[in-house]
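B., you asked whether I could sanity-check this one before it goes into the benchmark set. Here's the sequence:
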Amino acid sequence: MNYTSDYGYELSYAHEGDAGMDLRSAEDAVILPGGRETIGTGIHIELPKGTVGYVMPRSGLAAKHGITVLNSPGVVDEGYRGEIKATIHNAGFAPFEIRKGDRIAQLVIAPYANVFPEMVDELSETERGNNGFGSTGVK
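And here's what the prediction gave me:
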């Protein structure tokens, strides 16, 4: 995968075997409780054919501060060349300060399959049937 960085931030995995690469903030911001800000990363990517990038929250920020990526996962299509940004939401109880260079999200690259939708008169039967959302219970 090729990338450019407007601010010299490296796009890399923190540890061997990690699924997500750290995305760092290219700007300072304060996000108030219940608020959201779209934060630039300065990163532009060229994905390999047949892959998609997912901008995902960082679990530590979510657990410790209530900070998440609002439209998670944010989808980066293989043809996109603009700056990767993350819309950060503060679901916590205190203002959250972001400084330029802070790790704010992660980028996961995965293969995808294109499907070709076809309208039909009815769908095939399954054991679950049309029992919807929540029908399998908790236990």
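One thing to flag: The chain has a mean pLDDT of 95. Otherwise nothing jumped out at me.
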